[in-house]
Amino acid sequence: MPLQFDDLMITQVSEADQREFQSLYAGLMPGGKPGRPIAFNRVGECFLEAADHSVHVVSCLAGDSFQVAPSVEAFMAQVNTPAWQEEFLWSEKVFGWKSAGIKVGPTQVYALVPHPMANEGQISQKVQPTELKTWLKDSAKLLGLAKA
Question: In total, how many domains does the chain have?
Answer without folding.
Answer: 1
